[in-house]
Amino acid sequence: MAKDFPTREENYSQWYNDLVIKADLAENSAVRGCMVIKPYGYAIWEKIQAALDRKFKDTGHSNAYFPIFIPKSFFSKEASHVEGFAKECAVVTHYRLKMSTDGRGIIVDEDAKLEEELIIRPTSETIIWDTYKNWIKSYRDLPVLINQWANVVRWEMRTRLFLRTTEFLWQEGHTAHATKDEAVKEADQAYRLGVPAVILFGIPDKKDEKASGAYATNGIVPKTIRALKKALPDLLVVTDVCLCEYMSHGHCGVVHGHRIDNDATLPLLAKASLAYADAGADIIAPSDMMDGRVAAIRAALDDRQFTDTPIMSYAAKYASSYYGPFRDAAESPPQFGDRKTYQMDYANAAEALREVAQDIAEGADIVMVKPALSYQDLIWRVKTEFGYPVACYNVSGEYAMLKAAARNGWLDERAAVLEMLTGFRRAGADIILTYWAQDVARWLKT
Question: How much helix, strand and coil, in percent to the nearest 5, is found in the chain?
């Protein structure tokens, strides 16, 4: 057999391809870039799938199947996530063929154009989480533990049997959690790894125009704080203070017409902060970007004898395109307009310094820059200008981009994450909020 094809050292790509074919595992198909998995090769896949499927089901996961066609608008919501593989997406534009007028062949019926183009599944996150919005009405519907065995299409220019073809077999799991018991379990795992703090965001049973779930004394966040402090008294519990998750309209403040009422919002933020402090929160972290919120919260806390409860303000929070995945998970995209009237213009650095100075003057103990990746210059300027403890938030879009690149083999996830987080520290961040916290804690132990 060695005489029939080159050695690994001579031509690794050709050696690998010839080996797969000669082992009767697969062969190239009539469709360029696609392969036929032959019985012996498919039998190996079946054994792999069966072994993994048993493991998934042993941990409470169930299999489901979601459509292979995904509306283009779904991807538009996650443009930053999709950008990495956008050039590989196959697009369906018509739904019917017809005989050509000369009767010699089949052509696309131009009258059968779809109202919206459909993307043939390159990955299923967008359609799965759109479906979850219908499944999950409150934390009582959680956890959702779903696995999907499917196929995906990535229009690869350079293909290799099994390793990368235009269509390939696929597995993806998507889970959602929210109960306080699960939060405690997750926090315990993080704490044992060396993660010293968690930050809580809540999704209520019901939303309204007064954000009443945000300051309910027995709401999801206060209940979770109490459970965490009981189970892990030394864990630092930070609570995000904002109203968007609790408002039916998805904005961060009280709305009159289509206008955000800054001053009417401040008492609600103070009430939420008191509910969290009373439940045992260690740090209050307002993220709403209303003017005067730090002063209002500080006064309310001091009046109730929470004088030692520090405030970590989202002082320089920009109206960023990197928030998409979190907003969908937290069910908080604005139902009208956007948040540019109260979050900051990403081109404006001077305003960030003014906002930070105002929050410090009102009593903030820690100031935050959000997002982090594209704003390291602001982290540096805030640290050098004020000498205050500085936090930065490595947000969901930044996480999704790097995850997608790692999943496609374009980056080494561990190396890239550690380099990025080190960059935040080098820029001057004393505290980093990141979805990689547990992963980094594990990596630093090995």
Answer: 45, 20, 35
| 445 a catalytic residue | no
CB distance 15 to 7 below 8 Å: yes
Q: Which of 207, 271, 317, 383 is catalytic?
A: 317
CATH numbers and ranges of domains, the chain:
25-176 (3.30.930.10), 180-445 (3.20.20.70)
**346 confidence band (pLDDT: 50, 70, 90):** confident
| 327 vs 434: CA distance, rounded Å | 16
Lowest-confidence pick of 1-5, 83-87, 281-285: 1-5
Residue 89 tokens read as: 């997406």
Residue in 366, 355, 386 with CA at minimum distance from that of residue 282 = 366
Edge-to-edge strand list for the sheet holding 167-176: 62-63, 144-153, 167-176
Is 47 assigned a catalytic role? no
Contacts of 19 (CB under 8 A, 6+ apart): 5
Catalytic residue, from 207, 370, 383, 403: name it: 370
pTM for the model stands at: 0.60
